[in-house]
Amino acid sequence: MMSLPCPHCGPRDETEFGYGGQAGVAYPARPGDLDDRAWAEYLFVRDNPRGWSTERWVHRAGCRQWFVLRRHTVTHEIESPA
Amino acid sequence: MSRRLPHGGDLVDRDRPVTVLVDGDPVAAYAGDTLASALLAAGRRQVAAGTYTGRPRGVVGLGAEEPNAFVQVVSGPGEPMVRATELEVHDGLAVQRLAGRGRLPLGEDDTRYDHRWTHAEVLVVGGGAAGVDAALEAARDGGRVVLADDQVSLGGWSVGALGPDLDEQVARLETLPNVRVLPRTTVVGLYDHGQAVAVERRTDHRPDAPAHVARRRLWHVRAAEVVVATGAHERPLVFPDNDRPGVVLAGAAAQYVRRFGVLPGERAVVWTAHDGGLRAALDLAAAGVELVAVLDVRDEVAPGLAAELATHGVTVRTGAEVRGTDAGPDGALARVHVRHDGTIVTHDVDLLAVSGGLNPAVMLFSQAGGRTRWSDDVAGFVPDVPPPDAAHPVRVVGAAAGGLRDDELPPAAWFVGDVDSQEAERVFLDPQRDATLADLRRAHGAGLTSVEHVKRYTTIGTAADQGRGFGVLTVGVLAQVLARPVGEVGTTTYRPPYAPVSFALLAGRDRDALSDPVRVTAIHDRHVADGVPFEDVGQWRRPWYVPHQGEDLAASVRRECAAVRTGVGMMDASTLGKIVCRGADVGRFLDRVYTGLFSTLKVGSIRYGVMCGPDGMVVDDGTVARIGEDEWLVTTTTGNAAAVLDSLEEWAMTEWPELDVAFTSVTDQWAVVAVAGPRSRDVLAALAPDLDVSNEAFGFMQWRDAVVGTLPARVMRISFSGELAYEIDVPAWYGAALWDAVRRAGEPFGITAYGTETMHVLRAEKGFPIVGQDTDGTVTPGDLGMGWAISPRKVREGADFVGARSLQRADAVRPDRRQLVGLVPTDGSSAIVEGAQLVAAGADLTDLPVPMLGHVTSAYDSVTVGSPFALALLESGRTRHGEELDAVDSLVPVRVRVVDPVPYDPEGARRDG
Ligand SMILES: [Zn+2]
Questions:
Q1: Closest by alpha carbon to B663, among B676, B671, B675, B651?
Q2: Which residue range forms the structural domain that includes residue B464?
Q3: Contacts of A13 in chain B (CB under 8 A)
Q4: CB contact under 8 A, A26 and B655
Q5: CATH topology for A3-72?
Q6: What is the ipTM for the molecules in this complex?
């Protein structure tokens, strides 16, 4: 089990957190303007890197805040983004 | 025949005799014995049998590498497949010998198991000389140190060899305040970010321990650094009939003499491939074992060791090997056939001590992601590339790192003498699996060359010892078969757990009533007093039905439904999820997360809402009441409250942080009683004389503050049954008082308490879907016939809401989507089964695949409809009303007719009473 650094609570066990997938995928400003393909890209398509991944987590069983961190998907090294 | 020496054995306490029962027979032992040493001391050589072959098997090793000596503990709570080499004896211990497989004890295990969490700067695994040294070093700067050792006391197996120095170090370590020493504790897994999981055995060795002391404890240690000092496991050599009782690892045999004062045999052949085996021979000779031959596969041995053995009258025969064994009448070892200088000599012995070298115990290092390499110097796999997460280092020290003594000659990488042996069926590579050299050759013959494939084909290394004893040996034999270097063949992957962990321990205190929280409403005691049967809804316990004397479910539900349809009923509706939303922008926010329009909702009013995911599929529904300008109350389905709160917070926090909204779960803060039926207005009027309950003053989908009985309440006019209905909310601590007040006020009107089953029937008769029962994450509002819940104004103005764009995708508007329909049996009486598949009427169920048109999501016996009635999702369902289909469950079809999903009061005339 990983230990994740909540920016508000400090390092806590992974079981306290929820995973929110790739970070930086903003909800489109005007979804109605997107064609089906672009909308499907937003809905379903995410990076799946072997290496560093910037991703969203929520400290669900703690402060309930969402935050972003960088995780290496092979080694599970963790970096809080600058 | 006792094999206990008159003296010696620092681990046993000869002042404390102990008797254990083995297959019902008493066996004498001393405190400090393992079951294995006790059995050896009692001269009981056969302790197990082969799983498939039934061949007799004896103790081979000393600890976790033991492949044979598994027993079923039948005393105490009982336990299957316990290694005799790791089982401490105590009075009252009773075991049965096993043939490869244990069985789960069927009785209730009422002993305690618990979990503890701790943090450390350094976790040291292993309490031998290297581990003690590492722990002292780590403790020097005051950091927290945890030392976990799987033995009874620290010192490892080198006690005596290193003498008083180590004793002194151990004593010092145990006095340091920043060091936590955990004896009898096996680290079973090393995971990400310095997390280790360990099993501590706390009371098995002390049957007098009070019942409140946990029998075992699962430790969760989070350490900045882990030091692996787990030593090495002795490896055997193999030959035909190598599995007989009496064939023992040489180092283990010497330790049984030294630590337990037990002679594993009286006349012995020792066969080895490294100096450690020769030193073991010396120990055996010194203890009085008659060594008829000492063999070394190497061509040269250290002159010093040879000279010492010579003082016992023993000449080391180099380049020699064992070619087979014979059993005596008891099935145990009686003769050993030795090849030396081209001739075969047979010796009558009762002990064959073999040692093929030491395997560094790299399992934890490998689990953490470290890579190993073959070392010719060690003749074993040693740590090579450390685990990749540099922030959480794993360091390996001592014998686990492949350390050798300075005075040693290199060991030989020797595995089996003759890979082409005609007797390969009796060269056992995994005695617990009864897998042999012949199996390995068959795997090779089938074209398998990877050690991982061979493992799965032959099952070698998959038994309870996980290849600790024979795993590396098998790699060596495979290398011989493939004629490739051992290092190229490589090892199999080590995965946790290192040692078996019982489910009882994993569960810890989280069992029975504590396995999952049970949530009860503030009115629960009333339901218990009424003796109602409960239904579990998620973690909630809700009244299922409220039977009169002698009524079954069906009879009770018929009566309850009739009461609501014709008179008045009451139910505990406290479990509905309730979320208070506060802020200036709640209206705008709700417009975005619900399909409907909420910003126009007036204070005092309520609106029904459907929530979709971004993919346009329904995720929840409920009502939203506007309590004040900046305060709103959102209700959710009972099982979905937490997920909806998560979702609201996520949208607010990650996408629209500029909106002024905040959320508070108040599910448990309110108790709710629903009063439903044509007479509900009369009941409310009696309860709240100051409230104008007329339809004009208090319309459908409105709420009012009121005093109900003597209680401050919020009354909502909403209906889940289609009838005139109210929900009365009071602060939770008034819940029982509210229930009593409603019951009293309703008595003149014949008020009838009802449960979840009746609620389900009533809502199904109105075609109200339950999210999660009638939907499964692939259902749009349109599929449910709820296109009306999508705000036309939002559509007209192009306003977005979550899921809106997805609902325009071609797939979301296909006319042949599965749509909510009603079903009735054509014969008017056959029950329709929830989950039944819908197929064409008369479809041949043997002509596979049978095209499936939909499935039944809810089914009830409906007095109102006059027959069984079901809701279903059916392809093009809305265009098929009137059609006949078969609803098939377990290959039994029931002919059904498709009907409107709202069979009762489709005009909604009854909601106003
Ligand atoms: Zn936090």
A1: B651
A2: 424-489
A3: 222
A4: yes
A5: Folate-binding fold (3.30.2270)
A6: 0.97
